[in-house]
Write a structure and sequence with these properties.
The chain is of the alpha/beta class. A hairpin with a 4-residue loop joins strand 11 and strand 12. The termini are far apart. The chain is elongated, with a radius of gyration of 29 Å. Among the domains are: 145 residues, Toll/interleukin-1 receptor homology (TIR) domain (Rossmann fold), CATH 3.40.50; 103 residues, Alpha Horseshoe (Serine Threonine Protein Phosphatase 5, Tetratricopeptide repeat). The protein has 27 helices and twelve strands. About 12% of the residues have low confidence.
Length: 675
């Protein structure tokens, strides 16, 4: 039976409390109560704390004995610190001491005095039902009656009232399930950042046809769920769960879901996180796995009032985790008077696998993929393939393989002509299995852009991804790159601003913004956003790079050289920094030093995959224009993604008008430069 309710009481009241508890259990309520004498033993502690943490409501049985009980005071303090909803039940008149007065301020209570037990029980049932406690029909049947008494003096900690127009002050929902980390592409890991460093209030200046206005949407952040059960190296369920919740909640057009994947500091309360992210509400949860059983407790917290809007505990077997997801989604939606359309329910269901084994392998693959190393990315492919062996219909596993191949290309670990077709085939298969998968469309659009140079097909796929999930930040970021390459710069700004709003913790978003500023020669703005990128993640490989380019555009060549050297030292001679250093040295007239770096680039080809685009830049800076064009032609043949996002006609300006050079961009179909 689900222990949704924790009962705190004094031992002297045991007989009477157990009568009430038994009746609650008969009504279908899962109750945890100290029936074995934990309070009288030396083991008081972890079991009590775990039980309080797992419950969604504390029922506090108040009497002359309980208000002076040290254990009851401790239990109340734990529940209060955890923002647990508390329902005080007076067994008789009692004067609340100062040690309890603050925690109970503003909370409605029930007077369970002799002579009115029946009415009091109905009132307690109704109150618990409003707090999200499940029942068999007896609970919450009818309206509360007289024994439910107005608030104690002070602030309320109960659920927020609903406004007349039916809209909650904060929004939505929780769907527990399959966890995954859906951030495709290229360059950065998930190095934790502090909450205060993760705030960005960039606001889109306007909206394009493909963008639903964001300003009036209710906003929500899903905080990574905490594992409160046995810790295992293979315990990925809690770790990845919030990402899938993000993905599913994001399908709700009226909801703005901000990514909170980096908010892993458990010492921070929901209010601090919510305020840092600028959201109306946050969704928190705990996961306990033990002996094949799964318990998930979900709470929706109003940031302004610091109260629980909704809280509930779900118990299933591990194999039922997927049905649990749907149950939670529907229960929360009903509680908030939000309706999940049939299409949305079907789309959510199709994201799931039929196999718990496949799911666990998939989560392992995503965790490996996130590390961004060559070995880990190849290892992730093996995990995704094993997941497909368990469930060939698991579309997200196909997307995982595609993402790994795309990232191998992005980090220069694999040739585009080898890896990109493999990624493309996986995405085609994923969309065949699930034609409503936003992640697949977004990844496919990226391949159409950078590998196929299919401009129309790429934009169509981007718009499809966004229409399915308007809150998928990576789709916004990649679409912004497309718009920038297409010289639709204002639209590019609009899309990346939405991406930043959705995922302000990602340095990749700020990178996208910095590139737009650099393309438009707004170097002061590029410098500012590059510094923001570095503050969010000092270990992001491109942060120092765009900062160096900004300084170069401002005429600070020596500062550019300094930053390039810093990047080379920090990121193991990453070729982007070698090229930037050449650019700075060339500007300073240090031609011999430029040649030495060019030669180093050529030599690196013996051990590493050096993009032809980088080699072309090296030849260009030493004045070998034929060599530069030859490498650019090779970059075209290789489908080198480094041809973008900076316009090569600006990077190689001295080659404009050369027939061989111009022919490359004609074949690519690169849009005309804006005047």
């Amino acid at each position: 039976m689900s222990a949704e309710v924790f009962v705190s009481y004094a031992r002297v009241d045991r007989s009477r409390v157990l009568q009430i508890v038994e009746r609650m259990r008969s009504a279908g309520v899962g109750v945890w109560i100290d029936e074995g004498g934990i309070h009288g033993a030396s083991l008081w502690g972890q079991e009590i704390v775990d039980a309080i943490d797992s419950a969604c409501v504390m029922v506090l049985m108040l009497s002359d004995a309980s208000i002076t009980s040290d254990n009851v005071v401790k239990e109340l303090s734990i529940a209060s610190e955890d923002k647990k909803p508390i329902l005080p039940v007076y067994l008789h008149q009692a004067e609340i001491p100062k040690s309890m007065r603050y925690q109970l301020a503003g909370i409605q209570h029930i007077e369970f005095y002799k002579g009115n037990e029946e009415a009091a029980f109905r009132s307690m049932c109704a109150a618990l039902s409003r707090l999200g406690v499940t029942n068999n029909g007896e609970m919450g049947a009818g309206e509360p009656v007289s024994p439910i008494v107005p608030n104690h003096q002070g602030h309320s900690s109960g659920p927020s009232a609903r406004s007349k127009n039916g809209i909650w002050a904060t929004a939505l929902l929780g769907m527990v399930v399959i966890g995954l980390l859906m951030a495709l592409v290229l360059r950065s890991g998930d190095t934790p950042a502090t909450v205060l460093d993760q705030v960005q209030n960039n606001k889109p200046s306007s909206t394009s046809d493909s963008i639903e206005p964001q300003e009036n949407k209710t906003s929500l952040a899903v905080i990574p769920f905490r594992n409160i059960g046995p810790v295992s190296k293979d315990n990925f369920l809690a770790e990845g769960m919030h990402e899938e919740i993000d993905a599913m909640l994001s399908m709700t057009p009226s909801l703005l879901v901000k990514n909170a994947s980096r908010m892993k500091d458990t010492t921070l309360d929901p209010k601090a996180i919510g305020q840092a992210l600028g959201v109306d509400s946050v969704l928190t949860g705990t996961v306990r796995q033990a002996k094949g059983q799964l318990r998930v407790t979900v709470k929706l917290v109003d940031i302004k009032t610091e109260t629980n809007i909704w809280a509930k505990t779900f118990d299933k077997t591990e194999s039922d985790v997927f049905s649990m997801q749907r149950e939670i989604a529907q229960s929360v939606a009903e509680g908030l008077e939000l309706e999940l359309g049939q299409m949305q329910k079907e789309q959510q269901a199709k994201r799931q696998t039929k196999s718990l084994e496949a799911y666990n392998l998939y989560l392992q693959g995503r965790k490996m993929w996130q590390t961004r190393t060559r070995e880990a990315m190849r290892g992730s492919i093996e995990k995704f393939e094993l997941a497909l062996a368990k469930d060939p219909s698991f579309a997200l596993a196909h997307v995982g393989i595609a993402d790994a191949y795309n990232q191998l290309v992005g980090y220069h670990y694999a040739a585009p002509k080898v890896a990109s077709p493999k990624a493309e085939q996986e995405l085609i298969r994923a969309l065949d299995l699930n034609p409503h998968l936003s992640e697949a469309y977004a990844s496919y659009a990226d391949i159409k852009l950078y590998f196929r140079w299919d401009w129309a097909g790429s934009e169509e796929a981007f718009k499809k991804a966004i229409s399915i999930n308007p809150n998928y930040p990576e789709a916004r970021r990649w679409y912004s790159h497309f718009l920038l390459i297409s010289n639709r710069h204002q639209e590019a700004h609009e899309q990346i601003d939405i991406g930043i709003k959705l995922k302000s913790s990602s340095p990749l978003m700020y990178y996208g913004k910095a590139v737009i500023f650099l393309r438009n020669q707004k170097f002061d703005s590029a410098k500012e956003i590059s510094k923001k990128m570095i503050s969010v993640d000092p270990n992001y490989v491109m942060g120092l790079h765009t900062l160096a380019l900004s300084e170069f555009g401002l005429g600070n060549v020596n500062e550019t050289l300094k930053l390039a050297n810093e990047g080379l030292q920090k990121f193991n001679n990453y070729s982007e920094y070698m090229v930037t250093k050449m650019m700075a040295l060339n500007s300073l007239g240090k031609s011999e030093e430029v040649k030495l770096i060019r030669n180093d680039l050529i030599k690196r080809q013996e051990t590493d995959l050096v993009p032809s685009m980088m080699l072309a830049r090296g030849e260009y800076y030493v004045g070998n224009m034929d060599g530069a064009i030859s490498n650019l032609e090779q970059a075209y043949e290789d489908r080198n993604i480094q041809l973008f996002p900076f316009d090569p006609r600006q990077l190689f300006d001295r080659l404009n008008g050369n027939p061989r050079f111009d022919a490359i961009w004609e074949k690519v179909g690169l849009p005309e430069l804006n005047e």
